[in-house]
Amino acid sequence: MEPGDVSTVIAIEKLSYPTPWPASSYLYELRHNTRASYYVLLKPPTGESAPPERGWRRWLRGVLGLSRESRVIGYVGFRLQLDEVHISTIAVHPDWRRRGWGELLLLTAVEQALELESRCVSLEVRASNQAAQNMYRKYGFRFKSVHPGYYRDGEDAWLMEAEVYEDAYGARLARLRRALEARLRWQQTGVGQNDGDTI
Ligand SMILES: CC(C)(COP(=O)(O)OP(=O)(O)OC[C@H]1O[C@@H](n2cnc3c(N)ncnc32)[C@H](O)[C@@H]1OP(=O)(O)O)[C@@H](O)C(=O)NCCC(=O)NCCS
Q1: Which of 75, 114, 152, 179 is 20 to 30 Å from the Cα of 104, by its Cα?
Q2: What does pTM read for this prediction?
Q3: Measuring CA to CA, which residue among 9, 131, 129 is closest to residue 74?
């Protein structure tokens, strides 16, 4: 994530969180927090790389208008705290959900944690946020404790953690990565679902 991405990030943030972060929080993290990393997910190419025979002016406007900023469809951020990586934010634009992009962002954070030799990855999630909790469970996160009234609107947070240093976790992550890669490849190209890929 770069400062120029923040306006699109904030638009997604407002669609994703009941109590969104302001732009200033992201800009502070990007400019001053040396122990934080933030990534954006860019809209994948549509395959419409050549101009159509008719309507090429509209096509050209579309291509020229496709700035990096308008291509941001999701993001993840995390901070390194002693021997743990703490995920501070993760979201996918509502139009792009349920296609594996949230997993790709989570996987990015977890793999960075492994590179940093972290003991665990932790995060807070709203008690009512079933979608995110399911995603975290799929990646081996377990419920640890409740932080009563943690959010500004008074909702409780669940602290969840994944013990990423365990050998069994590495094998699980490798399986999840293979399955996710096959899913994304199939979505993008139609290749990989029934062509003998082992998942
Ligand atoms: C949580 C979020 C990032 C998931 O992104 P996504 O791209 O839709 O997720 P994916 O398609 O990668 O799904 C990954 C897994 O999450 C779970 N999941 C995602 N959306 C779900 C839903 N609506 N209902 C139930 N489970 C869901 C499933 O376990 C899914 O695995 P599956 O495809 O094998 O069923 C997205 O819903 C979001 O941006 N929510 C708003 C912001 C937010 O709540 N962030 C988390 C803060 S702690």
Answers
A1: 152
A2: 0.90
A3: 9
Cite the beta strand spans of the chain per DSSP E. Answer: 36-42, 72-81, 84-92, 120-126, 142-147, 157-162
Separation CA 74–CA 185 (nearest Å): 18
Cβ of 172 closer than 6 Å to ligand 1, yes or no, is: no
Query: Which two three-digit tokens encode residue 25?
Result: 């929080």
Taking residues 111-130, what's their average pLDDT? Answer: 96
Q: Give the domain CATH number at 137.
A: 3.40.630.30
In a domain, 115, yes or no: yes
pLDDT tens digits for range 135-190: 999 999 999 999 999 999 999 999 999 999 988 999 999 999 999 999 998 987 77
Instruction: Give the pLDDT score at 198.
Output: 42
Q: For residue 124, indicate whether it is catalytic.
A: yes
CA of 135 from ligand 1 middle (Å) equals: 6
Domain, as residue range, for 109: 3-189
Judge if the beta carbon of residue 138 lies within 6 A of ligand 1. Answer: yes
